[in-house]
Amino acid sequence: MSLLDVRQLSKIYAGKVATRALHHIDFTVEPGEFVGIMGPSGSGKTTLLNLIATVDEPTSGEVLIEGRNPHLLPRREKALFRRSRLGFVHQQFNLLDTLTIEENILLPLTLADTPLSEMAERLGSAAERLGISGLLAKRTREISGGQMQRAAIARAVIHRPALILADEPTGSLDSQAAAEVMGLLAEISEAEGRTVLMATHDAVAASFCHRVIFIKDGRFYNEIYRGGSRNAFFQNIIDMLSLLGGAGYDLSAIRR
Ligand SMILES: Nc1ncnc2c1ncn2[C@@H]1O[C@H](COP(=O)(O)OP(=O)(O)OP(=O)(O)O)[C@@H](O)[C@H]1O
Ligand SMILES: [Mg+2]
Question: pLDDT at position 246, please?
C-alpha cells in the first residue's frame, strides 16, 4: 500500500472569478520516500499541500493517507488525525515565540499526553540529530533562521508522523543555511524512514529529494528520479525548470 495516494485531485477556488488551482492531479508516494513538488508561482503547490493536510477541501478527487481518506473524518477526528499523523514545516517556521525551543519541539507530544520520560528521550535524540541540543532553553528571538527551521523540523518529526509536509522550508533562509537544513531534513527522514512531501522553488533543496514532481497551471507536468549523484540530479532539475519555464519561473531562486 502506498503511504499517500492522490487521485484525480482538483481544486477550484470559488469567487467572482473562479480559479482552477488544481486539475486532476494523480500520484502516489511510497513509505520512506522524500518527494519534491516544483512548479512556477501560482501552479498549485501550496493548494496541493493544503488539500493533503486537510486544511482545505478538494472540489473533486481523493486523498488517501495510509489507505484512509482523512477528508471523510468528522471535524474533531480530522483535527486529531492532522496533529498525530502529519508533521508540518513552514517557510516562516511557525514556532511560538512565547515558548522555549524545547517547549515548541515537544508540542505535538504534549498534545498527545506522551509520558515525560519518553518525551525527554525523543527530544534528546531529535535535538542531537539536528544539532540544536544547546539551544533548547532559548526562545525564537535568540536563535537564527536556520536554527529555527531545525527546531521546526524536530517538532515535525518528534511524534513520528506518517507524512511530513513542507512548504518552501528553505524560502526564508540564505543559501548556506538552506543547504544545511535540507541535509539535516534528508538525513533525519532517511534515518527514521519518514515520508516527506516538500514544495519548493529551490533547485538545491529539491536535489535532496528522491523524486521531484513538476506541476504547471495546476496540472501534472513531469517527474524525475534522483538515481545518481545529487549534483547530476540538480542539473536535471534545472533543465526541467527551464523546459517548464515561460510562465514566469523565478530563476533568481536558483542558487549557485
Ligand atoms: N484561498 C484562495 N482563494 C482563491 N484563489 C486562491 C487561493 N489560494 C490560492 N489561490 C489561487 O490558486 C492558484 C494556485 O495557488 P498556490 O498558492 O497553490 O500556488 P503555489 O504554486 O503555491 O505558488 P507559490 O510558488 O507562489 O507559492 C493561484 O492562481 C492562486 O492565486
Ligand atoms: Mg505556495
Answer: 53
* pLDDT(253) > 60: no
Residue 147 has pLDDT above 70, yes or no: yes
Residue 88, H or E segment? strand 86-90
How much is the pLDDT for 245?
A: 81
What is the Å distance from ligand 1's center to 44 Cα? 6
Distance 45 CA to ligand 2 centre (A): 5
Global confidence as pTM: 0.94
Alpha helices in 132-202, H assignment, sequence order: 145-157, 175-192
- The verdict on the CB of residue 21 being under 6 Å from ligand 1 is yes
Longest C-alpha distance within the chain, in Å? 54
Angle between helix 145-157 and 101-111 (nearest 10): 20
**Quick one: which atom of ligand 1 is closest to the CA of 15?**
4
Contact yes or no for 109/87 (Cβ under 8 A): no
